[in-house]
Amino acid sequence: MRSRCHTLLRVVGSLPALAMWSCGNGTGPSPAERLAFTVQPDSVEAGDSISPPIQVAVRDEEGNTVDGSTASITVAITSGTGTSGAELGGTLTRAAVDGVSTFDDLTVDKVGADYTLTATAADLESSVSAPFTVTLVLSGEGPNISTWEFAFGDGNIPPDATSTEADYTVSHVDSMSTITVNSRQRPDVGLHGIYLLRRETDAALTAKMTYSIQFRLPDAVSIAAHQAGNPTGQTIDMTLFSWDGKTSRRDYGFAISIITNPYFQTGHVRYWVTDADGNGSWEDTGVVLDLDTEWHTVELSVDPVSDSGVAKIDEAIVVTAPRAKEAKPTFGDDVTARVSVEVISVDPGSDNGGRSARLQVRNWSWIWSPDG
């Protein structure tokens, strides 16, 4: 309520009326004039809800909250602030309650500094928040890969063969994840089931990173087991790469592949190399694993300062080599890092095809040292 002053006329006996000036609180509501952020956005991790919840109040011309207002207030990222292309998620329009709108589920999807929000409402002056930063937790770990992205595709298939989600089965429990490809045991396809985790940040080009994951082949690998109908894969692959879409347009990193096909170089470990033109291929490390159904640990490290990568299996160094630098003309214009685990079913076109392939993984970690 705004304070108001008015004139009182008072008659005292036969004397003329006396004019008196009186100030007090008026009884009518003051008109709403503008919006104001009363709880400002705080720095937040990309994808997480901004906390504490942002609040925007409807104010009168003297700065008091208009308690009776139920104005519909909308918030948006202020144009030209933060990172280009960022999206504000959550419920962006809220009706005021007692003159205040509370936004308790707002998220921003891209890392960046100097973001601000703008609040608007019909017939009211808009308001711009204080600046805030959206950060990214780079390092991570988990008992399974249920939070990773899943992708699938065909490999070495005839033109009339295609894969669908029905060709894959994925399950997650607290302690591990199981990936099965070619679930329908089709003889005409070789299928790729890939789980990957990404981080979008320029630090992907300067940080030293180490990716570790435990894997297990739940089915025995042998010709006899395959002929008896056991699931049999082609390879299992683990990768750690950083994509530079802004300048070099090269994919920097390290990958290893373990051959699980019982008919072809079983147990051989290969690593990914590139030539001067950025064309990639697999190179044999000379290491041959005795494949079993026990848990094993793969660890990949890349160092941009020394431009090198190191692969370990069960703490033993498998290979140390320069990072691969692969050209990827169809990749985007961002800078990202990613880790992945992939299982591939046996190539079609022979007696080896038509089997599913299974892989179990657990206890992954991805450690960043941002200073390189």
- Biggest sheet details: 8 strands, antiparallel
Q: What is the rounded distance between the termini?
A: 59 Å
Shape: elongated
Low-pLDDT sequence parts: 1-12, 14-26
The appropriate CATH architecture of the largest domain is Sandwich
Domain count, please report it: 2
Radius of gyration: 31 Å
Number of helices: 1
Helicity range of the residues?
under 10%
- CATH topology name of the largest domain, in short, is Jelly Rolls
Number of strands: 30
CATH class of the largest domain: Mainly Beta
- Hey, roughly how much beta strand do the residues contain? over 45%
List strands and helices in order, with pairings.
Blueprint (H helix, E strand, L loop, with lengths): L2 E8 L7 E8 L6 E8 L4 E2 L8 E7 L11 E6 L10 E2 L3 E3 L4 E4 L3 E2 L3 E4 L1 E5 L2 E5 L3 E4 L4 E3 L6 E7 L12 E6 L2 E6 L8 E11 L7 E9 L6 H5 L5 E12 L5 E10 L8 E7 L5 E9 L7 E8 L4 E6 L2 E7 L1 E4 L7 E11 L11 E13 L3
Parallel strand pairs: 4-14
Antiparallel strand pairs: 1-2, 3-5, 5-9, 6-8, 6-12, 7-10, 11-14, 12-13, 15-30, 16-19, 17-18, 18-30, 19-29, 20-25, 20-30, 21-22, 21-29, 22-23, 22-28, 23-24, 25-26, 26-27
What does this structure look like?
By secondary structure, this protein is an all-beta fold. It is built from one helix and 30 strands. It is elongated, with a radius of gyration of 31 Å. It folds into two domains: 103 residues, Immunoglobulin-like (Sandwich), CATH 2.60.40.10; 230 residues, Sandwich (Jelly Rolls). The N terminus is likely disordered. Strands 15, 17, 18, 20, 25, 26, 27 and 30 form an eight-stranded antiparallel β-sheet that branches. The chain is 1% helix and 53% strand.
